[in-house]
Amino acid sequence: MITTSPIFFSIFFCLIFLLQLTTSTDTLSPNQSLIDGQILTSEGQRFHLGFFSPNNSNLKRYLGIWYKTTPDVIVWVANSRTPLQDSSGTLTFTKNGTLILENATHGVLWASSKPSHELESPILKLLDTGNLIIQEKTTTYDDSVTTTTSFPWQSFDYPGNTRLPGMLLGENTETGKEIQITSWISPDDPSPGDFTYKIDQLGLSQLTISNGTRKRFRTGPFNGICFNGLLMVGNQTFRILTDVDRIRVRYITDPYNASSINRLVLAQNGTIQRYVLDQKTNEWKHSFTIPGNVCDIYGQCGKNGICNPEQEPICKCFDGTKPVSDQEWVSSDWSKGCRRDVSEDCGNVETFVKISGAKLPDLLRFEMKKNMNLSECQEKCLRNCSCTAYANPYVNSADTGCLMWFGDLVDVRKYPEENNEQSFYARVPISKQGNFSVSGKNNKKKVLITIAISVVGLLTTMMICGCIVVKIKKIRGQKSKKEDLELPLFEFSTIVAATKNFSSANMIGEGGFGAVYKGELSKKQEVAVKRLSKHSGQGIEEFKNEVNLIAKLQHRNLVRLLGCCIQGEERILIYEYMENNCLDHFIFGPSKKQLLPWPKRFDIIMGIARGLLYLHQDSRLKIIHRDLKTSNILLDSNLIPKISDFGLARTFDLDQASAKTKRVVGTYGYMAPEYAIDGKFSIKSDVFSMGVLILEIVAGKKNRSFSHPDHHHNLAGHAWLLWNDERDMELMDGNMKDSYVEKQVRRCIQVGLLCVQKLVDDRPEMSSVLFMLSNEEAKLEEPKEPGFFVERSSFHDEEKIHIFGSEEYMTKDTMTITDMDTR
Ligand SMILES: *[C@@H]1O[C@H](CO)[C@@H](O)[C@H](O)[C@H]1NC(C)=O
Ligand SMILES: *[C@@H]1O[C@H](CO)[C@@H](O)[C@H](O)[C@H]1NC(C)=O
Ligand SMILES: *[C@@H]1O[C@H](CO)[C@@H](O)[C@H](O)[C@H]1NC(C)=O
Ligand SMILES: *[C@@H]1O[C@H](CO)[C@@H](O)[C@H](O)[C@H]1NC(C)=O
Ligand SMILES: *[C@@H]1O[C@H](CO)[C@@H](O)[C@H](O)[C@H]1NC(C)=O
Ligand SMILES: *[C@@H]1O[C@H](CO)[C@@H](O)[C@H](O)[C@H]1NC(C)=O
Ligand SMILES: *[C@@H]1O[C@H](CO)[C@@H](O)[C@H](O)[C@H]1NC(C)=O
Ligand SMILES: *[C@@H]1O[C@H](CO)[C@@H](O)[C@H](O)[C@H]1NC(C)=O
Ligand SMILES: *[C@@H]1O[C@H](CO)[C@@H](O)[C@H](O)[C@H]1NC(C)=O
Ligand SMILES: *[C@@H]1O[C@H](CO)[C@@H](O)[C@H](O)[C@H]1NC(C)=O
Ligand SMILES: *[C@@H]1O[C@H](CO)[C@@H](O)[C@H](O)[C@H]1NC(C)=O
């Protein structure tokens, strides 16, 4: 060893001499090295990469990244577990795209993992975000990218105790790597300490700080918008990427903002400290601490205790429980918590009390039912004696969901109500209801409710629950006004993977605005992916506004938008997937027709009518669909109809009654005459399409391709002829002969005919359509001549024949969603 050493050293230094970095740079090329004393500097002069000793107090040397202007603030350490004992270290960037930290005698002390894919000509670069990346040399990247998931290797995937803006916490969706923050052992020793800060994925996502398996802090579960309870720990805004079900949070990240320098550190004592650099004085200002309040400390009041920092003492037992040890409790030792009285006939002598403005109990034993609403949830919880609480985990009024807790309730804290509107319902014995100690305001109301319950029993409980639900809805309504509804943004790569690169095998439809693919985000999560036609020229902000608008349209009979994806020219919408696909498969498919007996068909007609009424009247914006047809009606697993493609065509101001367009979008066979011919559309042109739909559903035949030996009219014309001969029942699909209700069928045909009347003013509005369909007593007018009541063979004009013959007709221009903005 001793003899070979000098020779080795001369080679070593020779090599260094050859490859030495002459000027300060932010990159290393393959075969280049960095020795102790040399540094890389990011382009904007914010960060340095090099060798350092913590606190300059000992000779241990580490490779790391620090702020150029405050070199004692280390943000990343490579060899945190394997320090060098002297300044003999060399960092080499190998030609296969990995980093190796070694010294002559000791060999490799640290090496980076392989890049996520093989690189032809790799390059190492220190970015101004503080991220050290390995990347193909020819690829250009944008320093301002706020979310960095796509580098083949990046130091941001291997954080120590510091989270920088742009860094992910959670899962790097590109590499699948789970990223968490780990405290240092001490300010002198960056090796991993006791505490981690991460996204805990126990069914529902929460942010936690823990020492091993022992939690020290948690935020409360994700509630569709933010983490329940995080509101209280500072104004930090961050981006959240969730799965489509909006239960699981993939990652959170602080947006990178070049003009604000800040960092989040998980200190060795398990607290998170946030600091912001005052760029004038070059001093770090402390911004906030988590846990920031005595009640933020995990399980401060023990099990079944509730913590409220604004009362004295801070801990109370939930109603129906009492301190395990009275003596310890009164001397402010709450660690043993409270014990639940076991009640013998739990379902009958217990009820729930609303606890509002609280951090939801920890998810120790719980069940989540995504499709249950709050009243069903209460009922289910009440029936199971070990169910101790329930809640809707979401704050969006449109989201149903039932979260139930079993056994002890742990780590509940109360917030001032104006700061946290989320509530849950805790089980209490009816006999204990006088003590609404934890439920804050509205005591009077609740006492009244209580009396009602004890008198009338279970039935009343459910009604009261209804009252509470209404109240919550009101609160939520206010909330959603305040908050900018943010839909989850999906990575393009996720969509590519989910649709097998938009393979034709996955294509399930093609409409006016683009193709629709079935996508699989995971084994259990199927979605419908609408890839909007390109060349729209629409800006990102414009698109986001439109998407936000569509997302706000929520109705049982509208397909729900789950998220979107924007990348370059790509504009993609992600919808819930409907396993029964579209209505036309059912009513026109010979094998499936039998699956739709009359009562189902009637329900479907009513559902579509409700959905359309919502678009026309009940949503805040008057939406004209413009392309209502059977293939745009999707059926869920219960055959509940959902209108799709709404909102894409054009949104209307409420006072705008009709408009004219040169670009006709729609499908012949469903288009009203004034729209097909003059491009004039209004809610009444949607009513026309609705009429065609009703007649098609009753007849099981298509309007446009209808043929009859006696005449050349379309289905609507045929229906009118039958109507005038009082033979209207002959229109009915023969498959319904065992199931039809004659009165209803007749009524549907008549309403259908009223809807397809030629003159706009003769057609009813959707509200009366719905009224006429559902009220047997309603007096119906006699329908007049339908639109396009002209025998097709009499047409000589080829273009007009085309109207009836073509499957679908669209001008090129209309295949874009810019159309939405042409007012
Ligand atoms: C790196 O060094 C190896 C041997 O030391 C040499 O074969 C290779 O060509 C070099 N590569 C580059 C990109 O300089
Ligand atoms: C850092 O070094 C200074 C002086 O060398 C010492 O007073 C201080 O306690 C050290 N800090 C830590 C956290 O070790
Ligand atoms: C290499 O590093 C080891 C461990 O840090 C150290 O003991 C050794 O002295 C170093 N070798 C040289 C030549 O500096
Ligand atoms: C990458 O290069 C280093 C040094 O050149 C070598 O030790 C390592 O095995 C290589 N890794 C792969 C995956 O080729
Ligand atoms: C972390 O937990 C371990 C074992 O439970 C304990 O010994 C240690 O003191 C804890 N660390 C801190 C900093 O509380
Ligand atoms: C939060 O924002 C308010 C006003 O917007 C400000 O006064 C306060 O200092 C901020 N708090 C933190 C911790 O940044
Ligand atoms: C970036 O930070 C600066 C200073 O805090 C602020 O004024 C600016 O609005 C921020 N920009 C964005 C896009 O958030
Ligand atoms: C934890 O450590 C941070 C940073 O060192 C310090 O500011 C804070 O006061 C400590 N908190 C406790 C409770 O020890
Ligand atoms: C909850 O769902 C049930 C069954 O689907 C329904 O009857 C009830 O009206 C719903 N309640 C609310 C408040 O939406
Ligand atoms: C109550 O719910 C728990 C958890 O789901 C379950 O294990 C238990 O069997 C249920 N008990 C009854 C009586 O349904
Ligand atoms: C709650 O009720 C129990 C029994 O009814 C009673 O002993 C206790 O004093 C009450 N607690 C409060 C805070 O009113």
TrEMBL record:
It catalyses: L-seryl-[protein] + ATP = O-phospho-L-seryl-[protein] + ADP + H(+); L-threonyl-[protein] + ATP = O-phospho-L-threonyl-[protein] + ADP + H(+). It comes from the Eukaryota. It is an enzyme of class 2 (transferase). Residues 502-780 form the Protein kinase domain. Its main location: membrane. PANTHER family: RECEPTOR-LIKE SERINE/THREONINE-PROTEIN KINASE SD1-8, RECEPTOR-LIKE SERINE_THREONINE-PROTEIN KINASE. This is Receptor-like serine/threonine-protein kinase. It comes from Lithospermum erythrorhizon (Purple gromwell).
